[in-house]
Amino acid sequence: DAGVTQSPTHLIKTRGQQVTLRCSPKSGHDTVSWYQQALGQGPQFIFQYYEEEERQRGNFPDRFSGHQFPNYSSELNVNALLLGDSALYLCASSLDSAGGTGELFFGEGSRLTVL
Amino acid sequence: GESVGLHLPTLSVQEGDNSIINCAYSNSASDYFIWYKQESGKGPQFIIDIRSNMDKRQGQRVTVLLNKTVKHLSLQIAATQPGDSAVYFCAEGMNTGFQKLVFGTGTRLLVSP
């Protein structure tokens, strides 16, 4: 049973570019959340997708957008990259019917470096 | 705003010792708290959680204590092993069904053989 998988694992971009990160949730999960983890910090919630809709959003600008596909996989897009966007981007999946405390399963992340 | 923080950024212990990692939280409305372990190059891994109506919960070698009076959370690891070396985060959430977690900055646990 595959867990949460993310791609790419590492990537380097320059300021102003755009990036797309991908996530496949754990088998049987229908909800995907994205977190940004700056070096030495805890993860910060970006947004969550359920039934192909953005259901909740953290304090991130509109440059951060996402999508969820019918197979529950998800993409995170970041436009007009800034140096401060350099971070580990984590995808977490869960089962909505498990309720508010349903366990989140995290992927290993995509390490983005913006030069 | 909401915040979850940790008192100690690094904790060094000897193998076999008991470890205690502390966390302060500010949102008294949080419904549950979770401890995560993050090893280098990996995503956070669930350790144990506790609901706000509890003050103690035990797992395998781990115990979480919640003191709502002083808004304090701790993770106790018994007989710490080198494999426990990692960064530990506390996180809090609410029963919205959306599982939006607020994480602290983390404590690095270093276990010496």
Concise synopsis of the structure shown:
The complex is a heterodimer of chains A (115) and B (113). By secondary structure, chain A is mostly beta strands. In chain A, 0% of the residues lie in helices and 50% in strands.
Element layout with pairings:
The complex is a heterodimer of chains A (115) and B (113).
Chain A: E1 5-7, E2 10-13, E3 19-24, E4 31-37, E5 44-50, E6 53-57, E7 64-68, E8 74-78, E9 87-94, E10 105-106, E11 110-114
Parallel strand pairs in A: 2-11
Antiparallel strand pairs in A: 1-3, 3-8, 4-5, 4-9, 5-6, 7-8, 9-10, 9-11
Chain B: E1 4-5, E2 10-14, E3 19-25, E4 32-38, E5 45-51, E6 56-58, E7 62-67, E8 72-77, E9 86-93, E10 102-103, E11 107-112
Parallel strand pairs in B: 2-11
Antiparallel strand pairs in B: 1-3, 3-8, 4-5, 4-9, 6-7, 7-8, 9-10, 9-11
Identify the notable features of this structure and list them briefly.
heterodimer; A: 115 residues; Immunoglobulin-like; seven-stranded mixed sheet; 0% helix; B: 113 residues; mainly beta; five-stranded antiparallel sheet; 11 strands
